[in-house]
Amino acid sequence: MRSSATPSGFSRGSRLGRVIKAALKYVPVLPVILVSACSGNPWNSPYPAADADKNILYSAFAERPKHLDPVQSYSSNEILFTAQIYEPPLQYHYLKRPYELIPSAAAKMPVVQYFGQSGERLADDANAAQIAYTVYEISIKPGIRYQPHPAFARNEGGELLYHSLSAKDLAGIYKLSDFPLSGSRELTAHDYVFQVKRLAHPKLHSPILGLMSDYIVGLKEYSATLETVTAQAQFNQKGADTYLDLHSFPLEGAQVVDTHTYRIKIKGKYPQFLYWLAMPFFAPIPWEAERFYGQRGMAEKNITLDWYPVGTGPYMLTENDPNRVMILEKNPNFHGEAYPTEGPPEDVDEGLLKDAGKPLPFIEKVIYSRDKESIPRWNKFLQGYYDASAIGSDSFDQAVQLTGQGEATVTEAMKQQGIRLETAVAASTNYMGFNMLDPVVGGVGKQGQEAARKLRQAISIAVDYEEYVSIFANGRGIPAQGPIPPGIAGHREGKEGVNPVVYDWVNGRARRKPIEAAKALLAEAGYPNGRDARTGAPLVLYFDVTARSAEDKSSLDWMRKQFQKLNIQLVVRSTDYNRFQDKIRKGNAQIFEWGWNADYPDAENFLFLLHGPQRKAGSEGENASNYSNSEYNRLFEQMKNMENGPERQRIIDRMVSILRRDAPWLWGYHPKEYGLYHAWYENVKPNRLSHNNIKYFRIDGSLRAEKRREWNEPVLWPVVLVAILLLASLIPAVMVYRHRERSAGITSRDIKPA
């Protein structure tokens, strides 16, 4: 019988044929890689080849933002977006130092007028005690228009299209871009007044309502009125959603003068209020957006102002997938702004003024990819897939070296890649807070408060932040002596600036007290050797932190060891950032880790974090420790409205002294910020108070594409070698098989039929 062999010599269905067929599946990998490498886009690029040399900024974020509504947003991971989208009246000059306020949407700097108790106009240099209220008159530029948005879409008759949507209308809507039409309109003074009113909206819980109620005339009463109206409306509607029309409720402290002018009326004198006018809290919100988003069914689809902001700034958020990517694109309606024409002399040498007078923004699109882990972020930066990078502890030695003069510079490897280092002392503080409402660390009653104070003081001595900065921040920080960082008026240097509860001044420098001093305080607190003197039970404390990666385990282990010096057991409770914020807001944490970045360059912006009336629990303020000391509160009220000078400094010194004794925080450290930037990333000057800086940056997309190809060339020889070895290993098997087939064929021909 003749064998049914294929022309190739492999019998269909034979074991050898199946093996060879499976092996050959992997051979096409080589040409695929070759085609990718020749296409102009690196084979490992996470981005489309069509975007290789486009004017796009690539960055990363670790924590998803919770609020993008400017009335609620107050976190650094949120202002990364809100500052590019919204336009408050003022902003900081990008290049000038010291920091200088300049107009943003405002046509000029606000006109400030002082008035006495009887309404008489006072001189500009009037004593603060004589000033009953201050009026800020703000004029905005005409012709500014909002980004395209469905909230503004109108039909031919001029009626708003999407303000009376039914469940049927929303059936096919899942995201904002599903609305087929959009519109725009001019920015008016009404929009700024509307946003001031929104600070008091009972459903929005603005974190600065408590503070601003002390300043903006009538805001506290306005808040109470809205609370009452909302409660009555919900009762009448049996719990149904209702729209609160703020136009129906006037606010004395915020008044429209004309289409492009409005006034804000402040109690007494508050010089720092100008700084607040540079923050998104006072950016405009159109009533159409709130009405649009307030419709029933929108929140369930996550179509809200917290998810899809509406602004007049240089960028708009076009994709919000916070578990994957967030994309900003140039606002086609942006009114235009020019790059600064002035700056310090060194800015000229560094090329920061070569774009002077040119229209902004330069970058067309910003793509933020979510990368929770620092090592993948770092590797993508080295490959050129992120344009800038912070420096983690694990990569510090790879990136930075110290010169003989102690100055930080990039390593030779970084320099060869064209990577440069930008440094700045941050106007911020990282601290560990005690919840003063907690019965153990906060204390109850006079005796309990004294015991808790000594417990906090003991822990303050035990937790060695000099060691922490050295180990975990690579020396990039200054152990704090109080809440006010260097560079902020009110900060003290030298012996005057040392915290005497934690440090001794020895031979012209601060030296942390010995652990024996901490143990003595702990015993006085009622916990000798870390045990309750009454019950003998070990002292267990709870430390709330945001969800950590495996690389942060060592820092948490270190913190446990610091408490173990006092034989205190520290239990770490980790959660995501949004849940962490909720726990702090409700006063449910015992000990927590947090930080504060300056909103404006004034001591008041740090001291208000411990002002009693602004505690988190119950008041929605920024006093996360819920600390309250009557003398401190009184001094704060006295200090906050004063101009900087010797008398104000004396009051600040006393306030800081009270805080050091009460120890509501472990003062932590003031970080030094290091940033790495690729050669194609231009016009970068660290500005720790201004966050709307993306409009000034420039990207050389062609240089980036060239470097990406250079740094990501595929290593092909291992693939080629494997393919050759695979094919070579098949040759003997093929030869043996064919020999057997031929032998079988000869044998079958020799056998004659019966």
What can you see in these coordinates?
The chain is α+β, with helices and mostly antiparallel strands and 754 residues long. Strands 14, 17, 18, 19, 22, 23, 24 and 25 form an eight-stranded mixed β-sheet that branches. The protein has a five-stranded antiparallel β-sheet with strand order 5-4-6-8-7, covered by helices on one side. A hairpin with a 2-residue loop joins strand 7 (254-258) and strand 8. Helix 13 packs antiparallel against helix 15 (515-524) and helix 20 (630-639) packs antiparallel against helix 21 (646-662). The longest helix has 34 residues, at 717-750. The chain is globular.
Notable characteristics:
globular; single chain; 8-stranded mixed beta sheet; 5-stranded antiparallel beta sheet; disordered N terminus; 27 strands; 754 residues; alpha+beta
Name the shape in a single word: globular
Q: Label the structural class.
A: alpha+beta
Number of helices: 23
Q: Which percent band covers the strand fraction?
A: 15-25%
Largest sheet: 8 strands, mixed
Rg calculated over all Cα atoms: 32 Å
Roughly what percent helix? Answer: 25-40%
Q: Give start-end ranges of low-pLDDT stretches.
A: 1-14, 23-30, 32-37
Distance between the termini: 13 Å
Number of strands: 27
Q: Give the mean pLDDT.
A: 89
What oligomeric state is this?
single chain
Give the structure's gist in a few sentences:
The chain is α+β, with helices and mostly antiparallel strands.
Write the layout of secondary structure elements.
Layout (H helix, E strand, L loop, with lengths): L14 H10 L4 H10 L17 E6 L14 H10 L4 E3 L8 E3 L7 E5 L5 E2 L10 E7 L49 H10 L10 H5 L5 H18 L17 E5 L2 E7 L5 H4 L10 H7 L21 E7 L3 E6 L6 E2 L6 H5 L9 E2 L4 E6 L3 H9 L5 E3 L5 H4 E3 L5 E3 L1 H5 L3 E6 L2 E7 L10 H18 L2 H8 L4 E3 L23 E4 L2 E4 L2 H10 L15 E7 L6 H12 L4 E7 L1 H10 L4 E7 L6 H4 L8 H4 L10 H10 L6 H17 L2 E13 L3 E2 L15 E2 L1 H11 L5 H34 L4
Parallel strand pairs: 1-13, 22-23, 22-24
Antiparallel strand pairs: 2-3, 4-5, 4-6, 6-8, 7-8, 9-10, 10-13, 11-12, 14-25, 15-16, 17-25, 18-24, 18-25, 19-25, 20-21, 26-27
